[in-house]
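ok posting inputs for the iron/sulfur cluster job
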Amino acid sequence: MKQILFINPTINNTVFGKMKMLALPPMGLGVLASRTPEHYKVSIIDENLEAVDFNTPADLVAVTATTGQAPRAYQIIQEFIKRGVPTIMGGIHASVMTEEAVRFADSVAVGEADELWPVIVKDFEEGKMKKIYRAEAFPSLEKIPKINRKLFSKKYMIHSVQTSRGCPCNCSFCSVTRFNGARYRFRSIPDVIEEIEEIEDRRFFIADDSIVGLGPEGIDHAKRLFKSLKGLGKSWGSQVCITIAEHDDLLKAAAEAGANTFYIGFESIEAESLKSVNKNVNLRPMIKNYKNTIRKFHDHGIGVIGGFILGTDGDTKEIFDKTIEFIHETGIDGSQFTIMTPFPGTRLYSQVEKEGRLLFTNYPEDWVKYNAYEAVIQPRNMTIDELVAGWRNVYSETSSPVRSLRRSLKTLMNTGSVVNASINLFWNYYNYKAVRDSGMNIDAPL
Ligand code: SF4
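and the output
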């Protein structure tokens, strides 16, 4: 039986690479594996969890990569090519840097490869793989095959499920609108529920870009999903757009359906900074008062992990202290702080490239620095040293062991949930630990 090996390369220099337990299963590879004809043996190797054995018998190797993973993806591909194994690369990076990727891989898949994959496998069987395959349109998710979860390592702490793709917001730093389209596409809810019921654990994570879309269609999808989840006895988290807080009935339905924690891209506490990256959706009247908005989630017993970007063009040196104060004042449960990073293919990249602010352009090697935990552009209103020191200090002042513990006790008070308190203690501390262990001294006195 011929074998296809799917590989997710390591991304060692980020929180998720360092803290292996925070890694999520590579859903995209799971989808392609499920679309592979049955006469193939398929395996998924996640290098974040286990080493790649280059001598594993394989007839075809398919590698996915985000930008930070790309240099490692190219190394992996070269190792297999040396051994005479045909390779194909896909994912966001290869989709935007296609000319670069074809220099390394035998073939490149551009865009969401769901419907391309059977064509690619057929061409492989016939010995006529093309150099580049391009998805002509965003595939419908209505009849997406069920993922075979047995293919994922047992080392993941949590399973994930996808219910939709796409986002219309087109924030300047984000690749989602370009890679997954500006229209929300949804999976059929019975399919999603069937997949969730097969997850043995009680807990799982919904890895959508946002579980609630902006328009009526997205809201209706979320309502039907929450209704179907209710009664399953599951406890789950999800990424979600902050706009869900405009709908009290949705928050209530999410809580009744088992929602415990939402990861929300707050990005910044300053309106100027949000405008500078086109995250205008966070400035809508009913949600722009973040403190009140966070309270709404707490009122329903749901914890909030906020994603914050530091070093945007709207940020001044004051942003660090203001962010620390915000974290403590609002009682936001978890937090993740990244450094403004222009990923290729985004409008932000074109902007900073035109302005001559890119600090590392020896590609592809330098892509490894594009991981959102290193400064790769000249900030507009501060020096690079001020940005990095400020970022470290925010971690130190909000997520050190003692701070993490205090915040988790606050979560217990605010949401009444031991599960939420534990999730956020774990999340904050391990994010802090990853940054600390990466050699950056963030042990400022408490
Ligand atoms: S950051 Fe979030 S809201 Fe903005 S485009 Fe990306 S997925 Fe959409």
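notes: The first strand starts at residue 2 and ends at 8. Residues 167, 169-171, 174, 176-177, 209, 241, 265, 281 surround iron/sulfur cluster (CB under 6 Å).
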